[in-house]
Amino acid sequence: MAGGSSNISRKGAAAKAAPLLLPAYLWLTLAIFLPLSAMIFFSFASNMPLSGKPWSLTLGHYGAFISSDIYARLLLTSLRLAFDVTFWCLVLGFPAAYVLAKVLKGRSREVVFLLVILPFWSNGLVRVFSWAMVLRSGGILDSILNAILPFKINIDLMYSYPAVIIGLVHSYVPYIVLTCYLSLQAIDDSIIEAARSLGASRFTVLRRLILPLSLPGIVAGAVLVFVPVIGSFMEPRILGGRTGTFYGTVIEDQFVAVYNWPLGAALSFILLAVVLLILALASPILRRS
């Protein structure tokens, strides 16, 4: 009897929540599932169905990925880029999140927190071109160092792999800071004080207490950074130049320059499949965290 009443109450709660959930699910259907369905259809078309040219269903675009090793090599390069950017975002973002959550208080925390989220307030192109002004030969970084140092130097990082890393880290490190901040903020300070009073060193507290308890924020931030960086194209295109050819830039070329939407759609869904495979392999860690 109790089980039946609980089921009835659960159904009643779901009926009350349906009007609130319907707009969100309707928006998701229109903004995500319909475009994805269209792109899946385009990926199997020999030509764009709306171009007026004859077309048929084919697996040739997926076969092009298998037959040509250049796409696989570019995908591996993009995976390496995503791992590097995620690593540096964690190295820079976790200490900043710890300082925000456990060291700073009051107005100083608000100021630093504002500086962390400041990149979200500017356009992505503005951020990338700002780094181009800083990293190029004779740019801002060169001018500052030559004004300070007694000897002449020329630091030209433009159109290089480190420039792409710098631009992407600047764009995505706030995600790490925000997610880790929420996890660190939830850790009770009395637990840390108890560990310190029992003789644990700062490194031991960090390794045995803070890192395990903040693992959900670390994993969530890493996923938020890793997934979009694999398919990034704006920072590699502008800051990398000829060395910035990655899987995402090839997909962009298919849609913007070559107008080969079927191949671009097929490459996009191959990338989606690889990302889902990586997340599936990492699901035990995600579930545990």
From TrEMBL:
<keyword id="KW-0813">Transport</keyword>
<protein>
    <submittedName>
        <fullName>Peptide ABC transporter permease</fullName>
    </submittedName>
</protein>
<dbReference type="InterPro" id="IPR000515">
    <property type="entry name" value="MetI-like"/>
</dbReference>
<feature type="transmembrane region" description="Helical">
    <location>
        <begin position="111"/>
        <end position="134"/>
    </location>
</feature>
<feature type="domain" description="ABC transmembrane type-1">
    <location>
        <begin position="75"/>
        <end position="282"/>
    </location>
</feature>
<dbReference type="InterPro" id="IPR035906">
    <property type="entry name" value="MetI-like_sf"/>
</dbReference>
<keyword id="KW-0472">Membrane</keyword>
<feature type="transmembrane region" description="Helical">
    <location>
        <begin position="20"/>
        <end position="45"/>
    </location>
</feature>
<dbReference type="GO" id="GO:0055085">
    <property type="term" value="P:transmembrane transport"/>
</dbReference>
<feature type="transmembrane region" description="Helical">
    <location>
        <begin position="263"/>
        <end position="286"/>
    </location>
</feature>
<dbReference type="Pfam" id="PF00528">
    <property type="entry name" value="BPD_transp_1"/>
</dbReference>
<dbReference type="GO" id="GO:0005886">
    <property type="term" value="C:plasma membrane"/>
</dbReference>
<keyword id="KW-1003">Cell membrane</keyword>
<feature type="transmembrane region" description="Helical">
    <location>
        <begin position="205"/>
        <end position="230"/>
    </location>
</feature>
<keyword id="KW-0812">Transmembrane</keyword>
<comment type="similarity">
    <text>Belongs to the binding-protein-dependent transport system permease family. CysTW subfamily.</text>
</comment>
<feature type="transmembrane region" description="Helical">
    <location>
        <begin position="85"/>
        <end position="104"/>
    </location>
</feature>
<feature type="transmembrane region" description="Helical">
    <location>
        <begin position="159"/>
        <end position="184"/>
    </location>
</feature>
<keyword id="KW-1133">Transmembrane helix</keyword>
